[in-house]
Amino acid sequence: MRQRAVKLFEVAVNAANPALALRPYLADLPVIAGRYVLISIGKAACSMMEEAIANLPKDAAFEAIAVTNYENARDIERCVVMAAGHPVPDENGEAAGLAVIDLLKTTTVNDVVLTLISGGGSALLPAPIKGVSLADKAEVSRILLGAGVEIAAMNLVRQQLSRLKGGGMARLASPAKLKGFILSDVIGDDLRVIASGPTVAPIATRTAARELLTNLNVFGQMPASVQACLKVNAPEMALPVSENTLIGSNGQSLRAMQAAFGDGIIVNDSLTGDVEDAAAFILQSAHDNPAKTLIFGGETP
Predict the structure, then answer these.
(1) For the chain, how big is the Rg over CA atoms in Å?
(2) How far is CA 198 from CA 109, 168, 183, 272, in A?
(3) Region 268-283: what's the mean pLDDT?
(4) What is each CA distance from 68 to 87, 93, 123, in whole angstroms?
(5) Residues 55, 56, 58, CA angle at the centre, nearest 5°?
């Protein structure tokens, strides 16, 4: 039983391997008139960037920036690698955000932007809107983390304070064609939540962000610049058409485990809450289903 369990775990991990998950989607990339612009953000940024560069058409012109956490940063040939703070954004992350913005501003209709997105991108690539400082954004993250806010709610607020999140990257990439390849680290795989959705529409409006913070009794704790920003409802902006693909997720790993032996039962794909409660649920499920291969997934603190 132990060997079977270890094998299933390895299958799940391999299904979420950033490079292997990305590889099938990069087969036969076309030769284009312009450049490929590669932007990789998140804790898996380097692995995904290396895979993308390796699969570009021969002699293709390209420019590349990868932004990741300090622990995962490494040199990549012909790519600018920038390391930044996580989970609280820092000055290196702000510099990385400005570098990404500057590169996207150079794109033309002949270019193709490949965005490689993994977990952690929200904190790693802060690009505060005018009037909000990096210190203000860091304080927002600290307050929300301290309040135990779940990731979707946290990123709802972050999107309203960023030039890149909530579709900002897609807007800056226009008129180039944008393709996003996304590795999920959130329950439910909502593309608007992963790395705060830089290539998709925002989760909600400034009004919703303000109401959320008010209901949490933390709006008054927010920096003055953030309060001022969220009190003004921003006009809705059209989002350019982009092509976004989910390449890996908890659910996909569970299905890979199920397929490995054929008799696995996915009992729950969204275990959350206290780890002791989750463990008790798993043990009870095993007691109720003896001699069965039971598969669980989720995220417990």
Answers:
(1) 20
(2) 20, 6, 13, 25
(3) 92
(4) 11, 9, 10
(5) 110
Positive or negative torsion for Cα 52, 24, 296, 8? negative
CATH superfamily of 17-248: Glycerate kinase, MOFRL-like N-terminal domain (3.40.50.10180)
Judge if the upstream peptide bond of residue 223 is cis by omega within 30 degrees of 0: no
Cis peptide preceding 175, ω within 30 of 0 = yes
Long-range contacts (CB closer than 8 Å, 24 or more residues apart) made by 269-272: 269/296, 269/297, 269/298, 270/187, 270/188, 270/297, 270/298, 271/296, 271/297, 271/298, 271/299, 271/300, 272/187, 272/298, 272/299, 272/300
Amino acid at 224: A
Compute how many other C-beta atoms are within 10 angstroms of the C-beta atom of residue 211: 14
d(CA 89, CA 55): 31
What's the mean pLDDT when you consider all of the chain? 93
> Tens digit of pLDDT for each residue in 26-78?
998 999 999 999 999 999 999 999 999 999 999 999 999 999 999 999 999 99
- Give the residue extent of every domain in the chain: 17-248, 264-298
User: Across the strands, what pairs with 40?
Assistant: 66, 116
* Maximum Cα–Cα distance across the chain: 61
| Sign of torsion over alpha carbons 93, 194, 149, 46 | negative
Residue type, 170: A
pLDDT tens-digit profile of 149-201?
888 899 899 999 999 999 999 999 999 999 999 999 888 899 999 999 999 99
